[in-house]
Design a protein that fits this description.
Elements (H helix, E strand, L loop, with lengths): L1 E6 L5 E4 L6 E3 L26 H10 L3 E4 L23 E3 L4 E3 L5 H10 L3 E5 L7 H12 L5 H8 L10 E3 L15 H18 L4 E4 L12 H10 L5 E8 L6 H4 L2 H23 L6 E9 L4 H10 L15 H16 L4 E7 L8 E3 L6 E3 L3 H10 L3 E3 L2 E3 L2 E2 L7 E2 L1 E8 L4 E8 L6 E6 L7 E8 L18 E2 L3 E4 L2 E6 L3 E8 L1
Parallel strand pairs: 1-21, 3-4, 3-12, 4-7, 7-8, 8-9, 9-10, 10-11, 11-12
Antiparallel strand pairs: 1-16, 2-15, 5-6, 13-14, 15-19, 17-18, 19-20, 20-26, 21-25, 22-23, 22-26, 24-25
Helix pairs in contact: 3-4, 3-5, 5-6, 6-8, 8-10, 10-11
Length: 503
């Protein structure tokens, strides 16, 4: 049997994790909003039409912040159409996803839903087809108390207290040719700088996110960050990152190595931010908001057909990936990678939350809500990956795959919750053929004893959950023991493991 070891200590501190690293994302896309969070007339919905069972599942994920309303959707979003009396709101052609937007749910309704779900809102503004004045008007509407045109307009709409939204994204994927109002680096940098300056005059307490590259493979990466941050660095608090992962080659071993690509992406963006910091001789360190990440590839062909041949539907079933066991392993690995960089990745958003490449699904037309395979690694990491993140010193065998070299068999990160006196080891065995004996040295945590070893495993890499039943769920297993400060754990091939100790 192969063997691996981890040494951890209280001094090996990465950061106190910002809970917003467990954020998510809801866009006016597909069935995320309509037929997802909002289904008036459904017995499962409350008096405002919001699905109570969906709210419950979101609460169980403990999502502290949700990005809204997009996404590509935001680049043609006319926010004024989404407020005021619902019966007076216009229907619009939604150009990003070739759908019909009814505007039944807008900023005020979504803010109420987010409060019910226990989340704050991360608001994205339209810098594609609109600009500085529109962004300032929206901020005034949302955050100014009263006595001005747009704050009084909000009050006239029945919302006396300001929403007090604290995080604002300056556009979405503006480097992408697919984006409405796509900009060059210089165009976006200047527009974002001037918008940021104006918004901070209105509300100096807000945090702003400058638009970074849409993915690691963009031809302009990382020059996009280097150029745009020349303009925005002094005015923003974060730069965004987006990337999606998939297994189109149907190569599980290589698929489980894509978290290495995320690691490379994060390191490259950090280096670019620090280059701009040095160039500007700034004392400010810019952090990262990885505000779109997930597995996304299953539905690509069906989505292309639907948008091309059946456009202008209300809430068409777009991006409804049905996730497998191996997808859940990858989501678990990506979360480990984010936590390993929690000193600089302070916010992140699993994209998305309901029905659209999502951990939570609802049956079309009003049936039950159910949990996808990826629900569980996100839920358990969100629940127990709080407190101080520690850097493990790992000795592990490695292997090569079709596209990756020196892939570590074991990927791991440690969360130490001092308040609860809990230590949680997140570990994935990326070797799909061999089990491992993992020995973890926790002698620096005197008095900590094993609480549980939870595993996500399956004999079928393509096993999926459905409304009819769950083939993939976490299970407690007797595969760890603690003796004299050494935790010995058996990690089966291709498994996600959470080993919890408590004082």
């Amino acid at each position: 049997m192969k063997k691996a070891s981890i040494t951890i200590d209280k001094a090996f501190r990465i950061a106190d994790v910002d809970k917003r690293i467990y954020g998510s994302f809801i866009e006016h896309l597909g069935r995320a909003v309509y037929d997802g969070i909002y289904q008036p007339g459904n017995p499962l919905s409350d008096e405002e039409g919001f699905r109570k069972d969906v709210i419950g599942l979101v609460k169980d994920l403990d999502v502290p912040i949700i990005r809204y309303p997009g996404g590509n959707f935001v680049s043609s979003f006319v926010w004024e159409d989404s407020v005021g009396p619902v019966e007076q709101r216009p229907k619009r052609l939604e150009l990003a996803w070739r759908s019909l937007e009814t505007n039944e749910i807008g900023i005020n309704e979504f803010s109420r839903w987010a409060r019910k779900a226990g989340s704050d809102v991360m608001m994205a503004i339209n810098l594609g087809t609109r600009g500085i004045a529109d962004a300032c008007n929206l901020l005034e509407y949302c955050n100014h108390p009263s006595g001005t045109k747009y704050s009084d307009l909000r009050i006239s709409h029945g919302v006396r207290e300001p929403h007090n939204i604290k995080v604002w994204c300056l556009g979405n994927e503006m480097d992408g040719p697919w984006q409405l109002g796509h900009k060059t680096m210089e165009e976006y940098g200047r527009l974002a700088e001037e918008t940021a300056r104006a918004m901070k005059i209105i509300d100096p307490s807000i945090e702003l996110v400058s638009c970074g590259s849409s993915n690691l493979e963009m031809p302009t990466f990382p020059q996009w960050e280097a150029t745009t941050l020349e303009h925005t660095y002094d005015y923003v608090d974060y730069v965004s990152m987006h990337n999606y992962y998939g297994n189109k080659a149907n190569d599980t071993a290589d698929y489980l190595a894509v978290s290495d690509d995320m690691d490379t992406f994060i390191r490259s963006v950090i280096s670019t931010c620090d280059f701009v910091k040095a160039k500007k001789r700034s004392r400010k360190t810019l952090n990262l908001s990885f505000d779109e990440w997930n597995v996304w590839f299953h539905s690509n062909e069906a989505d292309d057909d639907l948008m091309k041949n059946h456009p202008w539907q209300i809430a068409p079933p777009l991006l409804e990936d049905i996730y497998t066991f191996e997808d859940a392993l990858v989501v678990g690995l990506l979360m480990i990678t984010l936590l390993k960089h929690s000193d600089r990745v302070r916010m992140a958003c699993l994209a998305q939350l309901i029905n659209v490449i999502a951990p939570v699904m609802t049956q079309k037309g009003g049936g039950k809500a159910w949990k996808q395979t990826i629900y569980y690694p996100f839920q358990l990491t969100s629940r127990y990956g709080r407190g101080t993140i520690l850097q493990p010193i790992i000795q592990t065998p490695c292997h090569d795959t079709a596209e990756h070299e020196n892939v570590t068999d074991v990927e791991s990160v440690i969360a130490w919750n001092q308040e609860k006196e809990e230590l949680t080891i997140f570990a994935v065995n990326r070797n799909i053929g061999e089990e491992l004996e993992l020995t973890t040295d926790v002698r620096g945590f005197e008095g900590y004893q094993l609480a549980e070893h939870v595993v996500l495993e399956s004999s079928d890499m393509k096993a999926a959950n459905s409304a009819g039943g769950e083939a993939v769920t976490p299970q407690q297993v007797p595969r760890s023991s603690v003796t004299d400060g050494m935790v010995v754990s058996l990690l089966k091939p291709a498994t996600w493991n959470m080993i919890r100790l408590k004082k």
